[in-house]
Amino acid sequence: MTTDTIRTYDVIVIGAGPVGENVADRTAAAGLSTVVVEGELVGGECSYWACEPSKALLRPVLLRADALRMPGLGEAVKAPLDTTAVLAHRDRMSADWKDDDQVAWLASAGIELLRGHGRLTGEREVAVATPGGDVVQLKARYAVAVCTGSRAALPDLPGIEELRPWTSREATSAHQPPPRLVIVGAGVVAVEMATAWQALGSRVTLLARGDALLPRMEPFAGELVTERLREVGVDVRFGTTVAAARRTEDGEVRVTLSDGGRLVADEILFATGRAPRSEDVGLETVGLSPGDWLSADDSLTVAKVPGDWLYSVGDVNGRALFTHQGKYQARVAGAVIAARARGEQLDTGRWSAHRGTADTEAVPAVVFTDPEIASVGLTVREAERAGRAIDVVDYDIGQVAGAVQHRPGYRGRARILVDRDRRVVVGATFAGPGVGELLHSATVAIVGEVPVDRLWHAVPAFPTISEVWLRLLETGFRS
């Protein structure tokens, strides 16, 4: 049944993940009436099937890896992890897949929630199919923000539906470790889930089509992760992928590899990329192609749709597929929507509140493996491809006193890229236990365009791993 009454709001947000929540928070705080439409759990992928549960699985694994190398602790932690306790911790961190707290937060922020599947039906119009079978018609005075995120992209493999493979959702929410797990992929999901499930009792085989793990990062990052995965028993294979796979009547997964090899597993995880959740949000009604990335400019406006009313925020626009970056975009989009609603001119300055500059210049990322990997800005490959003149400085983090204190036998590496003409940092990558906490300093240096000569005066405390900043400067720019 379709309701006759059209509900009108200043802003309609489709999708109540962290991105949609943040857009709505900004527009509601600006005094704009805002409704959020969500067909699943409020809190989205990050809260229930990605960031929160995956890090809850990995944190005990990484703590134990550190403790095993620490005098006085190694013997105490030699026993396997308590898998039941780790999974219970994961469940708590995922709020047991209930969104009551996040629904309450929306209400406290003055944001209305409408449960159901939202689709564009025309300019500033959205129809919502509710769980009860009704269709509610919505109209926006100023803006519609599509914040529907992304989903796992499965390969075009014959019989994949009958195979019932894992995606990142199943990998982060499984209730027990599969005895034998095949992971297909070389990126962040692949290496993090290999790290977690191997430690929790699975025998893991990791298949990479290319010749390296984490291929979008500096090569040494993938090399260190590969070395450690193999040390703990993961069978890492390069130059191969799945040619065919089927699930037998007794539940086994039988895999034929592209190199002719064969594997038998209990589960198979495809960690082979992401695709936009844009196939069923009514893009065709505003002249766009369903299923494509919903491209947005630096103000998060969908420029291909006239009128400056349609916004694409977070993963669905393909700009930078990270929760923190989506929330950053949400802050920008919220400010843009509020400014336009007030009739104000946008500030188009490079680092203004109305421009998502960091999406292209300073996107931070942490891979929670052993060792941890952290990066922001350009890699050497990206700089060369862009024709940027850079100086590259490397340092062995294991030589820093704070790293030795962190744990004996510390293995890690740091790299910064410095623009040769402007003398500012434009990229940084750190590999080693605990380096995720180094990342924000690098991000600040890049966004702030801090000259190398000024960085000399940012004195790191001794003995901390952050002393690597001083060593990098001494190595590359000693007077």
From TrEMBL:
SUPFAM superfamilies: FAD/NAD(P)-binding domain, FAD/NAD-linked reductases, dimerisation (C-terminal) domain. The keyword NAD applies. Coiled coil: none annotated. Its cofactor is FAD. Keywords: FAD, Flavoprotein, NAD. Residues 363-469 form the Pyridine nucleotide-disulphide oxidoreductase dimerisation domain. Gene3D superfamilies: 3.30.390.30, FAD/NAD(P)-binding domain. InterPro entries: Class-I_Pyr_Nuc-Dis_Oxidored, FAD/NAD-bd_sf, FAD/NAD-binding_dom, FAD/NAD-linked_Rdtase_dimer_sf, Pyr_nuc-diS_OxRdtase, Pyr_nucl-diS_OxRdtase_dimer. The keyword Hydrolase does not apply. Residues 9-324 form the FAD/NAD(P)-binding domain. Belongs to the class-I pyridine nucleotide-disulfide oxidoreductase family. PANTHER family: DIHYDROLIPOYL DEHYDROGENASE, MITOCHONDRIAL, DISULFIDE OXIDOREDUCTASE. This is NAD(P)/FAD-dependent oxidoreductase. It comes from Actinacidiphila acidipaludis.
